[in-house]
């Protein structure tokens, strides 16, 4: 770097405070290349914020494996193996400048820079999702984000549309219950659980497979704010979570999580204890499948530059390493398309994998060439395969490279869901009943507060009917708070018979 101030072309500058003018009082001259360059660059400093999860904070760290036979992925398989990571936490709906402590789902995205390539686990702090099929993602986000007329987050119209959507679209009910519980207002990023949400497939070196659900367990436990704290913090310190993360790392109190998996048989049914493992609105209770610990994550270094690292990092559910595979969950399938697609716009073309924060830490030798913002100077003949002239890019054996486990796919082309996706209430009830009375009271208060912001009475009544399907007593409390009657004739949970195993279970992952 030059000792002196220069233009971007390296020309040294004696003055950067006064533009070039014709006379002291004259007009500014086009000839002033420094003025034009300075203003032009400034004009283009911003890139589009993420279409969701725009507000985030991140940190570097290390993942140390405990070792496992479940997968051939080396960063998990080899005991003591250390892998550098970058982790970005986020809210979903707010813009880049929104407050941290709002009631929302939190993103928990981890990039492992493994020696077999980058592996991204793009999860949330809630183990289930609002929708079963990715084709609904634009709808739920349109219903929840600020509106096109006034762009006011939390305006009354936004409450109406969110509650309109989830009351009509009852597969969202389980996720909504987690949002209305204390999980929707975490104390800090350091005290959140994380979940891969979908079912993944792990494959070992011999080709044996298991289905798994990923979990991050915070070493300092799960802690939440209460609603009044969250509101005060949002006003007094909108950067509450971001500051807490950076301060704790600066102070040497490094945030830590253990990574674990629930291990489920890959027996061809893609179900476990009556639970459809391809349905992302369902979890598998830990009583039925305990979490097996795979390693420890420690965040020990703050980013140096927010834009270069936290803003430009690009997570993608399709960034997988040998031994870790996705399943046919229709939400996951749509995500596999969405992340790379959105990043082409957000990060200005196809070469964002060359940015320092996205570049793998292992050698790369792809055949991709040119494009916007190409920063490599490739030599020789443009690559192609098969190539009898210049074969400096051999392919590895199947055992060493990324392959998908062979599996039979057959069925009639159509848009319907499996019948097992129709149960929208059993697990919401399971979650609600697992809470302590104080936690249940918080859920009732949250529903009352949020629905109280709706203008349309029909929407409130429809959501009360949904609540009555989950827990009639809760529906009555909320109805009373809203000054409404519980709609009549609503059967309690049990419309769809829960599996015998599920009806025995009354708790959900992790303590609150
Ligand atoms: C961003 C999680 C569903 C599209 C994110 C981020 C997380 C996340 C954590 C933030 C990444 C970051 O920090 O940069 C999840 C989870 C989902 C889910 C856990 C469901 C289980 C979906 C679906 C779609 C989608 C169904 C679309 C079909 C996006 C997009 C971004 C994003 C476009 C912005 C990415 C970027 O600009 O870098 N998601 N998401 N997500 N998600 Fe999802």
UniProtKB/TrEMBL annotation:
Residues 1-10 have a biased composition (Polar residues). Residues 6-393 form the Catalase core domain. Transmembrane segments: none annotated. It is an enzyme of class 1 (oxidoreductase). Keywords: Heme, Hydrogen peroxide, Iron, Metal-binding, Oxidoreductase, Peroxidase. Residues 1-24 are annotated as: Disordered. Coiled coil: none annotated. The keyword Nucleotide-binding does not apply. One of its GO terms (molecular function) is catalase activity. Its EC number is 1.11.1.6. Its cofactor is heme. It catalyses: 2 H2O2 = O2 + 2 H2O. Decomposes hydrogen peroxide into water and oxygen; serves to protect cells from the toxic effects of hydrogen peroxide. Belongs to the catalase family. HPII subfamily. This is Catalase. The chain holds residues 1 to 512 of 666 of the full protein.
